[in-house]
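Quick one, C-alpha cells below. Sequence please?
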C-alpha cells in the first residue's frame, strides 16, 4: 500500500500515520522528521534547511525532493509506505509522479485529513515532542503524557518544537493554504483523493482512514 497523507500542519498526520504504519506493517516517511534529524546532526542539508524551518517556510523543492528520492531507494519501503508531509507543492507532486513512474509503482490513495482551523491552532499550540524517541504528545488533547512533561516511552523531558510558536504557526498555516492546499484539487483529478474528517477518538479516525484507502 502506497499512501500520501495531506492536511494542514497540526491535522494529526504524524499521529495517524504512526498508527496506520504499525497496522499495515509499512514505514511512514516524514520529510519533517528527516529534516529535523539532519538539523540535529548538523549535516549540510540540516544547516541549509534550518533557516526555512524556523520561520515556518518551506525548504526548497530541490533539496527535499532529492532527500525523498534517497529515502524511497531504501529496501524497507518496498512493501509500501505512507508519505507524511510530502508533497507540499505542485512541483513536488510532479517530481514524485516522475520518481514513481521510474520505479514502475503507483500510489493507492491520497488521504486529505480534514480538520477545522480552530482545532488545528489548539493542537499546534499544545504539541510536545520527545527529543529522544520522537514520540508526539499534546497537552490540549487526550494525547497528554502520563506524567506532565515526561515521555511515557523513554522518560526524557518533553520539548516544544521550535516552529510551534505563534508567529511561525501563523506562517505555516498561510504557506499551507497557498502552496499545499492546491494539491487537493490536483489529486482529486487523479481519482486518488479520499477526504477523512479527523474528529473523535484517534483509533476511530485511523479506522476511518483505513476504510477510505481500502475503497
Ligand atoms: P512537518 O514536521 O511536516 O510539519 O515539517 C516541518 C517543517 O519542515 C516544515 O514547516 C518545512 O519547513 C519543512 N518541510 C517538511 N516537509 C517539507 C516538504 N515536503 N517541502 C518543504 N519543506 C518541508
Amino acid at each position: 500500500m502506497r499512501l500520501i497523507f495531506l492536511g494542514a500542519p497540526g491535522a494529526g498526520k504524524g499521529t495517524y500515520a504512526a498508527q496506520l504504519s504499525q497496522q499495515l506493517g509499512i514505514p511512514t516517511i516524514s520529510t519533517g522528521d528527516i529534516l529535523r534529524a539532519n538539523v540535529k546532526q548538523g549535516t549540510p542539508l540540516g544547516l541549509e534547511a534550518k533557516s526555512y524551518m524556523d520561520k515556518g517556510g518551506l525548504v526548497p523543492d530541490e533539496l527535499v525532493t532529492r532527500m525523498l528520492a534517497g529515502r524511497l531507494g531504501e529496501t524497507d519501503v518496498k512493501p509500501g509506505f505512507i508519505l507524511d508531509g510530502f508533497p507540499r507543492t505542485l512541483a513536488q507532486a510532479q517530481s514524485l509522479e516522475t520518481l514513481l513512474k521510474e520505479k514502475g509503482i503507483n500510489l493507492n490513495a491520497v488521504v486529505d485529513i480534514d480538520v477545522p482551523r480552530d482545532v488545528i491552532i489548539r493542537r499546534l499550540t499544545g504539541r510536545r515532542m520527545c527529543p529522544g524517541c520522537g514520540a508526539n504528545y499534546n497537552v490540549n488533547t487526550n494525547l497528554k503524557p502520563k506524567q506532565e512533561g515526561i515521555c511515557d516511552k523513554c522518560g526524557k523531558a518533553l520539548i516544544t518544537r521550535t516552529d510551534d510558536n505563534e508567529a511561525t504557526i501563523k506562517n505555516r498555516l498561510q504557506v499551507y493554504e497557498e502552496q499545499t492546499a492546491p494539491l487537493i484539487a490536483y489529486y482529486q483529478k487523479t481519482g486518488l483523493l479520499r477526504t477523512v474528517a479527523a474528529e473523535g477518538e484517534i483509533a476511530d479516525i485511523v479506522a476511518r482512514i483505513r476504510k477510505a484507502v481500502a475503497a
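The first helix runs from residue 13 to 24. Residues 9, 31-32, 35, 52-53, 56-59, 64, 85-86, 88, 92, 163, 172 surround adenosine monophosphate (CB under 6 Å).
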